[in-house]
Design a protein that fits this description.
By secondary structure, the protein is of the alpha/beta class. The protein is built from 13 helices and twelve strands. The strands form two sheets. It has a six-stranded parallel β-sheet with strand order 2-1-3-4-5-6. A six-stranded parallel β-sheet has the order 9-8-7-10-11-12, sandwiched between helices. Helix 2 (59-72) runs parallel beside helix 3. It starts with 11 loop residues before the first strand and ends in a 7-residue tail after the last helix.
Length: 369
């Protein structure tokens, strides 16, 4: 009850490194997308967004404001974005001092697992803090069952953990769809950049292995995105530069409009990730009627149906044999059905539908597991 004898209105308070500038992927963009669209679903008094931008990018002022707000709050809901440890740790500590609120951490990944593919060392303190946070935070919303399983495996977490898949902004249907790929080269796109965690070496190997065989088609792969290991980056560029056929090309980081045009022109998205807790690029591809070939180490694979929107490959299986067999089995009707199913799955996973799941969970309107 409020002070006037009426019902007390719970407020959902979103906390994070809320970057207003446009980014193509990552935890900041997911959080940004949610807070940008939330006014469609909640009245002004039902929510609040707090970030360094709220205080002219002054994170110290933001933390002080968050601390005072939590300590004075009763019956509110705090959702903190899991991009880094600073804000989540402050909220976690304060949750012990102000127990009449609900606290949720939106988790996108585990640095201790991702860093294994980067060869990063000397972060033992960070990993220890990450493990403690994931193990002890009152409620966690993970972006996939895959991430949830890795949390339990690495931190032994046994507190409530919910799954809400990421959603993508609504994108109008392309005006045209490409025709069936039989009898011509097959063009693939990958947008995770030159990164070992994204399986870039495996993808290049598959392309060259398939093209070195006698097939009725040739595969071409365009790589979009940045890199996180300069040695790997230079090695990959040197390797693909020696290929006289130009089967693999590195396109770098491009504007959003150019990237979506590349999705539209591609026959398939290729994502042989080693560890990818969701992979928004798959949703982006599906939105353009472009089916996918991905591993089950992509969290989004959980919502795909094998052979319906493309193919899901178990990590460690023979990529060469599975992809070769899959492509050889395609006919026009099957491929066109995959295109339509791809767009349909995307439309089931827009940001609006994702936000409705958040609100249902946070307001306890219905259970979401």
């Amino acid at each position: 009850m409020d002070g006037k004898g009426g019902l007390y209105m719970k407020k959902i308070i979103f906390i994070g490194w809320h970057h207003e500038e446009e980014v193509l992927n990552g935890p900041s963009n997911i959080f940004n997308s949610i807070t940008k669209e939330i006014p469609k679903f909640l009245d002004e008094g039902e929510y609040q967004v707090i970030s360094p931008e709220t205080f002219n990018k002054d994170s110290k002022k933001a933390l002080l404001y968050i601390s005072n707000l939590i300590l004075k709050s009763k019956g509110n809901i705090f959702l903190v974005n899991g991009n880094g440890l600073k804000f989540p740790y402050v909220v976690h500590i304060l949750s012990h001092l102000s127990k009449k609120n609900d606290y949720y951490l939106l988790s996108h990944g585990l640095r201790i697992v991702e860093d294994k593919y980067l060869g990063v060392e000397g972060r033992a303190t960070y990993y220890k803090m990450e493990k403690h946070l994931v193990n002890k935070f009152p409620n966690i919303i993970a972006v996939s069952e895959f991430l949830k399983s890795k949390m339990i495996e690495n931190t032994k977490r046994n507190k409530p953990t919910y799954i809400i898949n990421n959603g993508l902004e609504y994108i109008n249907k392309p005006k045209t769809k490409k025709t069936f790929l039989e009898g011509r080269s097959i063009h693939l796109i990958t947008t995770g950049g030159v990164k070992r965690v994204k399986g870039i070496e495996e993808m290049i190997e598959v392309i060259h292995n398939i093209n070195s065989n006698e097939n009725k088609y040739k595969l071409y792969l365009d790589i979009y995105g940045g890199y996180d290991d300069e040695h790997l980056y230079k090695s990959v560029l040197e390797s693909i530069g020696k290929d006289p056929n130009g089967y693999v090309k590195y396109k770098g980081i491009v504007k959003k409009e150019e990237l979506y045009e590349a999705y539209r022109q591609a026959d398939f998205y290729l994502g042989l990730s080693n560890f990818d807790t969701f992979n928004m690029s798959v949703l982006e591809s599906l939105s353009q009627y472009t089916p996918v070939m991905i591993t089950d180490r992509c969290g989004i694979s959980e919502i795909l149906e094998d052979k319906k929107q493309g193919v899901v490959i178990h990590k460690g299986d023979n990529y060469f044999e599975i992809i070769k067999s899959f492509l050889e089995s395609l006919d026009e009707d099957t491929y066109e059905a995959m295109r339509d199913n791809s767009r349909a799955l995307y439309e089931e996973n827009t940001i609006d539908k994702s936000i409705k799941r958040y609100i249902s969970l946070l307001k306890k309107e219905e259970p979401i597991y």
